[in-house]
Amino acid sequence: MPSSVRALIERATTAPEAWERLDRPSYRAEHVLGVSFNALGRARGPVVDVLHGTWLGHPLHPALTDVPIGSWTAALALDAVDLVGGGRRTPGLAAASRTCTAVGLLGAAASVVTGLADWQHTHEGARRVGLVHALMSTTATGLQLASWHQRRRGRTPRGRVLGLAGWAVVTASAALGGALTYRHGIGGDHADRSLAPRTFTDALPVAELRDGRPTRADVDGVRVVLLRDGAGRVRAFGEECPHLRGPLSEGWVTREGLVCPWHGSCFSTEDGSVVHGPATAPLPRFETRVLGGRVQVRRVPPVPGASPGSVTTLEQQREDEQEVPDARH
Ligand code: FES
User: Fold this and answer.
1) Can you give the pTM of this predicted structure?
2) Which residue among 54, 192, 223, 263 is best mutated to probe the pocket of ligand 1, counting the most ligand atoms within 8 A of its Cβ?
3) What pLDDT, in 10s, does the model give residues 45-68?
4) Sheet architecture: strand order including 274-276
């Protein structure tokens, strides 16, 4: 690709990051979204989890956007084939194109709702880019809706022009969606998934832990959150929230699990799996043991079939000390 085109795309996708005038409408939109979701009452949590893709283990929005983009591209291709054939050789093409436009509209509706659910947790530059992305996608959907309407009334040429315009706008909007994912990391997994420490490594004195209170430890440069329950069991997980790196040691423990202080993702204190979003990826897990009054941790390898993060109870401490005279491996 010529460098001038690359620079143009780069400028177009980064420019909205600096548009501070978008902040006011952004916060208003976020407020409206918050009120709307809260109006769902007890259904709010499950509904929002579905929209985030927590059940899927992957953000739902980017998967759904393929439906409108793919369907509207198919409609465009069918229009092109029909035009080349003069509309006579394959008379079913116009109907097929109209159907593709309709399928794209259904996908767009689902994409907008899931996108808004994800967008409300973004900040600053990403939030501004996300707002422009949402406005462009809504415009494209409006154009496609008008296209479908015109096609249904038999005004096929007008419907094709509107469909082409909608396709162009949604393609530009998709570029912003790509910037949100690849530049801003929205929808990505932000947890530290390195393999360190591979062997049991000293974290902190067990006396520093309080039952039910998340405690941070730096283990050879790896940030870990330690949890001790009422039975004296110590568990360890990655300290950075996979959603947007919220500090889990500043969160709190409920009956459901460990809650991130930033946007409320909740993770099981048993195995780090996601209980509630917006996070969709589980916490990295560590094995723990207590030796000589100090907690040691090592990474549970993230490979299929790996044993779950085992824990060593404080009651086993004496046993461990007898079996393993050296605290460090
Ligand atoms: S950073 Fe968003 S929920 Fe943790």
Assistant:
1) 0.82
2) 263
3) 999 999 999 998 899 999 999 999
4) 252-253, 258-259, 266-267, 274-276
